[in-house]
Amino acid sequence: MTVNLLAELARDSEASFVLIARDGAETIELLTGDVTDVDLLADIPLTVDGTPREVFAMVPYRQVRERGFEAQDDGTPLRCLLVDQHHNLPLDDALAALPSETVPLHDAGFDITDEDYAEIVTRVIRDEIGRGEGANFVIRRDYTARVTADERTTALGWFRALLEHERGAYWTFAVITPGHIAVGASPEAHVVARDGIVTMNPISGTFRHPAGGATKETLVEFLSSTKETEELFMVVDEELKMMSAVCSDGGRITGPHLKQMSRLTHTEYMLRGRSRLDPRDILRETMFAPTVTGSPMQNACAVIRRHESEPRGYYSGVAALFTPNADGGHDLDAPILIRTVYLEKGRLRVPVGATLVRHSDPHGEVSETHGKAAGVLGAIGAIPRDTATVAPSDPDAPDSPAINLAQDREVSELLSSRNDRLAEFWLNPQDDGADGAFAGRSALVVDAEDRFTTMLAHQLHHLGLDARIVPWSDVTDAEIDAAELVVAGPGPGDPRDAGTPRIARMREVVARRRATGAPLLAVCLSHQILADSLGIGLVPLDAPHQGLQKVVPVFDEDASIGFYNTFTARVPAGSIAIGEAQVSADPVTGDVYALRGPGFASVQGHLESILSRDGIRTLERLIGAALA
Fold this sequence. Notes:
This protein is α+β, with helices and mostly antiparallel strands. It folds into 2 domains: about 1-420, Anthranilate synthase, CATH 3.60.120; about 430-625, 3-Layer(aba) Sandwich (Rossmann fold), CATH 3.40.50.880. It has 17 helices and 30 strands. The strands form 4 sheets. It has an 18-stranded antiparallel sheet that branches. Strands 22-21-23-24-30-29-28-27 form an 8-stranded mixed sheet, sandwiched between helices. Strands 3-4 form a two-stranded antiparallel sheet. The termini are far apart. The model is unreliable at about 390-405 (pLDDT under 50).
């Protein structure tokens, strides 16, 4: 039955079907049905005549425009397979039925040269991160080639090769529809919603197994890298922003863990929270993973638009399976579309990207894209496979020495020690805030295009405040004047640039509250704007503090806080007051960490970040000062 079914589907040029092998499963899921393309996530047809049905959807990157973010519109469809039949095929039978021929590639290579890609990396670090546009950005390039063999047979052969030669993938899959074919082994479940529990799985940091196999020393060196560690912390922060938007309890983090694949090892956390939202709404609010876009998310999309010359297609989108559940709704399982080969009109495309941070070395990022492309191409057999992951010195060891190394005490302790730097607030269960210090009070949070405000609002709820978020472009003067407490939020950009509408509006928000003396808390960008209004100078830092953790003085108490800033307010060293404002600043540089005065308080760092070990206590202290 398995052989005949797969052979029949391969021969039918109009048939649409999906093959999914989940990590550790002994079966392959075969989904068949009709295809329909829709415009919006809300249009995904989860019911027919009131009856729930299973739907598989390929969500392209351009769909991020539903969140109001920038993206090139390349017309890649939001494609839905309306599942008529869902088979579970024995893995061994499916492997025997799938083709095994090697398919040669022609005219293969990257669409952007190594030199040009290194120059793009340099520009992003200098012009985007260096000017306060964000903490990290993912810029992609595509490995392309011509394929002359039959596309459907080729795709099924690649799917078989991934099943045989890749390990540790969350989903191994083949999506075959007219005009669009995708085959991949995604390591990352972007968002899963089951039984009211939402899970996200931020993965970052890439350890490419060296020739001769991974060793404890090489893995420890990778785990000790400041760049790799901070890269993971930054994507966890970014995904917690999304969790705080869709989960009533904001989300809790567990980990870190090693994500081990055949040729690569990654580090990862798990985030969990409770939500009763429609799964399509959960998917919309979590578009897309910062591991393949950057942070803050909205500005990352703008940076991608500026530096990527070609649209992304499905790269960095998700494959989403909506399955009816016992409650009459749908569960959601949506891995990220990475480590994926696309085949269209005889052209192979493997998009790969590198995460660019302030520490990035352009040539190192070039090398990372080569490693990621080689991992996919080797797994499907398009290039010679790298067998370096086998440990020749130990014939009794499992296929990959990374499994043994993950259980090593030093490796385990090194991983666990990362949590010593993180805020217990996000590691532990959180109460509902009914007994919080400011119970019965309310706050208006003005979002300046950094969704750290969702985490901030969650912490305000925890402290008892009824907090509501309004975008800078929508907030009215009447709302600003009527609010009991205004929290002017963080955002990207140069605080001195009054010609930018967003900066200009945040200046107006701060000025209105200052004019009346009504309580104001200003964070990061808004802290800088407040400082400027007090006559304190603003200057760029010598090196951006994106994802940097520091212990700093905050009014007679040292606090461990996470920073994401490129600019700083600066006073003469030793200053403790400027006019009516008390100043808490670095005793040597004069960089201002916090301000407080009649009806206002502010902080340069992000008290809501996982990097702010003393964040919730410091937030409570500053709110108390503003309300006093």
